[in-house]
């Protein structure tokens, strides 16, 4: 494209510029015009070019779903407290799964998934989640008498001696670590009010409540950790490969979510189990000739 020296600014502004090559030609030619009018035209064109380029530039969408500082802190703490790396000794317990494998009730990924589905929806998974939810509400409401009653009931609700050892040992370890690394206002008062045995779901309920972490994410994280530990035990006992274990965990996602929602809406009147075989497994485990796990 060739520009004439006599071109007026309005004509220059009206010229179509369809390609980057045309824009470069305009800038080069205009810079050579020495008349005042042409310089003014050049000034107008140079001002217009960035505007055209800005209009054509793709605008990146603003980020959505970002968390607040409080939400980020809550997620960080839940991921820490309910991680397999948190030293409560969860890896040493199988909740009776070891006996179920020896008895032939669990022998592959499908039977492990069915067993855990029952434990989550109708067994200790649901009951522990109900206790956690009740404790969380009592602490949030500063109802210390209710907290003590719930803690006593939760400690008495386990079906066997080994399950009692499992949940009380993990609860005690959880509280000891919380005191040392995650202490905050209200924690010591809640622990003192319970006084006696603090089982695992009660311990998690207390700590999450005093840190003002929401009940719903706490329940989901707790049940996910519980399920992951069960699958880890099953994968070593059957045994299962890592990929197959992840398939079981993926298949139980909806069960974990539904159990968390049921527990959040439940009361202590809704407590109860229908997993008699799992209870028997937890009782018979202590009589096994050889054992890898403590329950």
Architecture overview:
With 295 residues, this protein is mainly alpha-helical. The chain folds into 2 domains: 48 residues; 219 residues, Urease accessory protein UreF. The protein contains 15 helices and no strands. Helix 12 packs antiparallel against helix 13 and helix 12 packs across helix 14. The longest helix is centred in the C-terminal third of the chain and has 23 residues. The chain is globular, with a radius of gyration of 32 Å. The relative contact order is 0.15.
CATH architecture of the largest domain: Orthogonal Bundle
What portion of the residues fall into strands of 2 or more residues? under 5%
Distance between the termini: 85 Å
H/E series: HHHHHHHHHHHHHHH
* Tally of separate domains: 2
Looking at this structure, what is the CATH superfamily of the largest domain?
Urease accessory protein UreF
The largest sheet, given as strand count, sense and whether it forms a barrel, is: none
Quaternary structure classification: single chain
Low-confidence stretches: 1-62
CATH class of the largest domain: Mainly Alpha
Q: Return the average pLDDT rounded to an integer.
A: 84
Number of contiguous helices: 15
Radius of gyration: 32 Å
CATH topology of the largest domain, by name, is Urease accessory protein UreF
Strand segment count: 0
Morphology call: globular
Instruction: Specify the structural class.
Output: mainly alpha
Helix content: 55-70%
């Amino acid at each position: 494209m060739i520009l004439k020296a006599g071109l007026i600014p309005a004509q220059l502004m009206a010229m179509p510029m369809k390609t980057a090559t045309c824009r470069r030609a305009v800038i080069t030619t205009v810079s050579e015009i020495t008349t005042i009018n042409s310089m003014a035209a050049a000034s107008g064109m140079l001002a217009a070019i960035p505007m055209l380029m800005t209009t054509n530039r793709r605008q990146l969408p603003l980020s959505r779903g970002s968390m607040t500082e409080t939400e980020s802190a809550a997620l960080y703490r839940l991921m820490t407290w309910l991680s397999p790396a948190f030293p409560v000794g969860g890896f040493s317990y199988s909740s009776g799964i070891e006996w179920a494998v020896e008895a032939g009730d669990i022998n592959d990924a499908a039977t492990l998934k069915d067993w855990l589905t029952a434990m989550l929806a109708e067994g200790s998974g649901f009951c522990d989640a109900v206790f956690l939810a009740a404790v969380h509400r009592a602490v949030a409401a500063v109802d210390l008498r209710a907290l003590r009653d719930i803690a006593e009931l939760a400690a008495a609700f386990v079906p066997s001696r080994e399950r009692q050892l499992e949940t009380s040992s993990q609860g005690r370890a959880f509280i000891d670590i919380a005191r040392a690394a995650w202490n905050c206002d209200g924690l010591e008062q809640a622990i003192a009010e319970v006084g006696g045995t603090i089982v695992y779901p009660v311990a998690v309920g207390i700590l999450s409540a005093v840190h003002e972490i929401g009940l719903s994410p706490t329940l989901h994280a707790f049940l996910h950790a519980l399920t992951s530990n069960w699958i880890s035990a099953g994968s070593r006992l059957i045994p299962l490969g890592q990929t197959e274990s992840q398939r079981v965990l993926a298949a139980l996602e909806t069960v974990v979510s539904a159990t968390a929602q049921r527990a959040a809406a439940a009361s202590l009147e809704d407590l109860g189990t229908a997993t008699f075989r799992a209870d028997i497994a937890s009782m018979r485990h202590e009589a096994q000739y050889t054992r890898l796990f403590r329950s």
